[in-house]
Amino acid sequence: MTEAASRPRVVLGVGGGVAAYKACEVLRRLTESGHDVRVVPTEAALRFVGAATFEALSGNPVHTEVFADVPEVPHVRLGQEADLVLVVPATANLLAKAANGLADDLLTNTLLTARCPVLMVPAMHTEMWEHPATRDNVARLRSRGVVVAEPASGRLTGKDSGKGRLPDPAEIVDLARLLLDRQDALPRDLEGRRVVVSAGGTREPLDPVRYLGNRSSGKQGYALARTAVQRGAEVTLVAAATVSLPDVAGASLVRVGTAEELREVMHRTAADADIVVMAAAVADFRPTDRATYKIKKTDRDPDPIALTRNPDILAELVQSRVNGQVIVGFAAETGDSAGDVLEHARAKLKRKGADLLVVNAVGEGKAFETEDNSGWLLSADGSERAVALSSKSHMASDIWDAIVALIEA
């Protein structure tokens, strides 16, 4: 097999909205990560971004009509040979055409012939997204297995703000890679469920400029929130201080700094949640006293820093859980003379009382601040399953599969 043939083949459809310029960043990220991308814009899209830009970034020719390059039969071949069809942005018009099976240009013909996963990422004004016709079209597409991503909220065209903004290109590419890995549509098996996910690491102040913290980036927690949104959940994401990631489209965001702040928000938001996922790395200790001024260097030895134990938020959430609530914890372990990673994790699961514990072996280049992750899923019923090294989005998908299995059982 040639190198070109082994590269994942992506058809990138581009709709005629002002967000079409962001498709260029999606295209760049896909090509730089080894994907063979064929851009199929609508005629309206080319009024925002020229064909030359798409051709230069993809290395492939760009056509909009079924009569271009007729001997190759592109209106059939593109969809048949693709590993993923990704539409960015998916306008209200494109969603309507796809939902009703219309095929009046190369992109809509490709959507009809595709037998691979299809991901449509909407972008439009709030009123258009919320219109009953659009909502019906989205529901119809999802019922057929098309993944219609939830749009973000924020600044739209002109002075308008609201839901309908195109998600961050990095988030779009992350979701596209997940579908390529799974080679199927994400199930909408969390619809009607309220989910709370914590992410990142807390910071415990020592003085106005110093703190005790950890290396958690929040990437795994954000991947869990992002995947839950796309599987239909109503998601609240509680982001701790170490997180510097783009907001998750479709999730409500609450920012916290310290363990005490995280504790208050988690108890409040978990009160009416169906599923609580404590992915945040909570500092075990905090300085007993916080200086109101920057502690200066002196010639004498500094005073020892007295520490106070932080509350065990996961254990508290288990103790206060409502009937039927599923609670998932995380354990970052290194192993020591008292036991290996799994031995420590099994003891923690028993001590905390969670329904599911996600275990990561941590250390240099492992789990924290990385793009990939691996570990184990330990269930309260005693079952254990290893999760092979994969993207954090893929691991998030595996974790949600396990959570849904718990709910169904």
TrEMBL record:
Residues 190-405 form the DNA/pantothenate metabolism flavoprotein C-terminal domain. It catalyses: N-[(R)-4-phosphopantothenoyl]-L-cysteine + H(+) = (R)-4'-phosphopantetheine + CO2; (R)-4'-phosphopantothenate + L-cysteine + CTP = N-[(R)-4-phosphopantothenoyl]-L-cysteine + CMP + diphosphate + H(+). Its EC number is 4.1.1.36, 6.3.2.5. GO terms for biological process: coenzyme A biosynthetic process; pantothenate catabolic process. Pathway: Cofactor biosynthesis; coenzyme A biosynthesis; CoA from (R)-pantothenate: step 2/5; Cofactor biosynthesis; coenzyme A biosynthesis; CoA from (R)-pantothenate: step 3/5. Residues 9-175 form the Flavoprotein domain. Residues 1-194 are annotated as: Phosphopantothenoylcysteine decarboxylase. One of its GO terms (molecular function) is FMN binding. Keywords: Decarboxylase, Flavoprotein, FMN, Ligase, Lyase, Magnesium, Metal-binding, Multifunctional enzyme. GO terms for cellular component: phosphopantothenoylcysteine decarboxylase complex. Residues 195-409 are annotated as: Phosphopantothenate--cysteine ligase. The keyword Protease does not apply. InterPro entries: CoaB-like_sf, CoaBC, DNA/pantothenate-metab_flavo_C, Flavin_trans-like, Flavoprotein. Binds 1 FMN per subunit. It comes from the Bacteria. CTP binds at D284, K294, P311, D312, I313, L314, F330, K348, K352. Its cofactor is FMN; Mg(2+). Catalyzes two steps in the biosynthesis of coenzyme A. In the first step cysteine is conjugated to 4'-phosphopantothenate to form 4-phosphopantothenoylcysteine, in the latter compound is decarboxylated to form 4'-phosphopantotheine. In the C-terminal section; belongs to the PPC synthetase family. In the N-terminal section; belongs to the HFCD (homo-oligomeric flavin containing Cys decarboxylase) superfamily. This is Coenzyme A biosynthesis bifunctional protein CoaBC. The gene is coaBC.
